[in-house]
What we know:
binds guanosine-5'-triphosphate; binds magnesium ion; Glycosyltransferase 2-like domain-containing protein; transmembrane helix; 7-stranded mixed β-sheet; single chain; 2 domains; alpha/beta; Spore Coat Polysaccharide Biosynthesis Protein SpsA, Chain A; Glycosyltransferase_2
Amino acid sequence: xxxxxxxxxxxxxxxxxxxxxxxxxxxxxxxxxxxxxxxxxxxxxxxxxxxxxxxxxxxxxxxxxxxxxxxxxxxxxxxxxxxxxxxxxxxxxxxxxxxxxxxxxxxxxxxxxxxxxxxxxxxxxxxxxxxxxxxxxxxxxxxxxxxxxxxxxxxxxxxxxxxxxxxxxxxxxxxxxxxxxxxxxxxxxxxxxxxxxxxxxxxxxxxxxxxxxxxxxxxxxxxxxxxxxxxxxxxxxxxxxxxxxxxxxxxxxxxxxxxxxxxxxxxxxxxxxxxxxxxxxxxxxxxxxxxxxxxxxxxxxxxxxxxxxxxxxxxxxxx
Length: 319
Ligand SMILES: Nc1nc2c(ncn2[C@@H]2O[C@H](COP(=O)(O)OP(=O)(O)OP(=O)(O)O)[C@@H](O)[C@H]2O)c(=O)[nH]1
Ligand SMILES: [Mg+2]
């Protein structure tokens, strides 16, 4: 049944049953009820909860609150997301964390650009809208450093690549090649959007601290390491100049330092080492430049294939 939107935040008219609200959860019995009820208040009744075999009453609470609950077949938030994306058939998907840290009432900020055809994927920037103590200090610092590196590595303007509050079309998510089963999934998702040249935009969303009773599943050290190495590895295909270039700086410093030592101590070993470091610096820069040509050509080819496919679909629709 079609429902109209009279919400002051949203003057678009659309069928809310075309939107699937997807919530990955693991041990969120304290918060999940509130999240589901808030979306229902907004008129969204199509709610899918994918549970990672919670040890508490999350599944029962979610079912009672009126969501469809599915138990994930594997482990990790990433696997839950991949499973959900293969199941969801609605045209639009809104994904949100089940810990009550984000607001259902802000859904229109994310959904409207997708409904209006202005974006394929909208990410909620929690860093811009964070309330006091929403992030633990260490997590905020790690997040900001990670996003800073990401902006350089991917020549992007994104400020919160790890956000769990997102809206996108079913077609755009199915185009992505997602494999990561853990918390690296959000990084992979963002990188894949950029690789596939999707229109990805960011909007600020309010972000609250998670309830004290419910422990976080994110390990700042383990997951932080996994995410940062993933950002570096993914940059190989997107921005090889960054991937190789980061090595050029320490190598150039070593070349200058050993040249200084060679001059100061009048020593041939340092001079030879300096020459080797210069050679290595040149080699990594060259590797970056050559790989960048290949990566750029690959992107252009993909873009042409995509444009061609779109044109074919439009021509097919006209018949
Ligand atoms: N299905 C499923 N959901 C998960 C899993 N791990 C985490 N989640 C859910 O994914 C969402 C985000 O996880 P959080 O632990 O809140 O991660 P975060 O928001 O980055 O970190 P916090 O600051 O601790 O909130 C929450 O709804 C979790 O319950 C999992 O293995 N399987
Ligand atoms: Mg959270």
